[in-house]
Amino acid sequence: MPDATHSFPHLPNAPGVGYKPQHFSDILENPAPVGWLEIHAENYMGDGGRPLAQLRVLSERFPISVHGVGLSIGGEGRLDPDHLARLKHLVGWLNPASFSEHLAWSTHDSHFLNDLLPLPYTKDTLSRVADHIDEVQETLGRRMLLENPSSYLAFDESTYTETDFLAEIVRRTGCGLLLDVNNVFVSATNLGYAPQGYIDAYPLDAVGEIHLGGHDEDEDDHGAPLLIDSHGREVVDPVWALLDYTLAKSGPKPLLVEWDTDVPDWPVLADEARRADAALTRVLA
């Protein structure tokens, strides 16, 4: 397939949504207020076919952000060279406005685990993650963004706070950051700290995208609240409030609404995008 052609070198400071094929026609007919789209890299690593044909059409009208979920940036072993090569091919063909991955690991030896697993924040982890980010950025020929995780436990061996760890990664590698506000709220609730304090300590100058999505509510074995980052429902009011707090400090940023499971019809997702647009409007007022 010929290279995708567009003129979108950067994401706009506007609402975006995670693209789902069932919304293809709706997005082309009535996208407002959506100004950009995100795709998951692993869904577009095949050769040709309808997914890439649709993506080519969308890339001519919208800036695209490519979000990876399978590189295992925090894994102990080397990055999978075949996966990295397929990613390079996709990014070279699409020339997206942004590429991001997770601060997590999802592989062990040659086995892929269908989850994004947490890391201890130590010097050894820092060196490994920085080396992997350097390899990704050199291979792709572009700066990547690294996303903060949603956490359900803390490691006793950690010697960095998460925000200090991310700041040092940025300093060492020159990468940017993807700030997931819902992940901050989920982690803060689960681990018992104030999400506003996390935002206060976060290196906001390095943020290239902000994400938010829905989460599920549960309880742990002791009856305490346990939140699960599910991307399967509307964003709750406390997360919208944390977004307002964040934008007041960071200024406007590209803002993505994620909805990956139990995906609704387009009008529901568009309503969430309109709420994101209102948050951006408030910070510009």
From TrEMBL:
Coiled coil: none
SUPFAM superfamilies: Xylose isomerase-like (SSF51658)
Highest rank taxon of the organism: Bacteria
Cross-referenced Pfam families: MbnB_TglH_ChrH
Database matches in HAMAP family: UPF0276
NCBIfam families: PRK05409.1
Name of the protein described by the UniProt record: UPF0276 protein SAMN05443551_1132
Organism expressing this protein natively: Marivita hallyeonensis
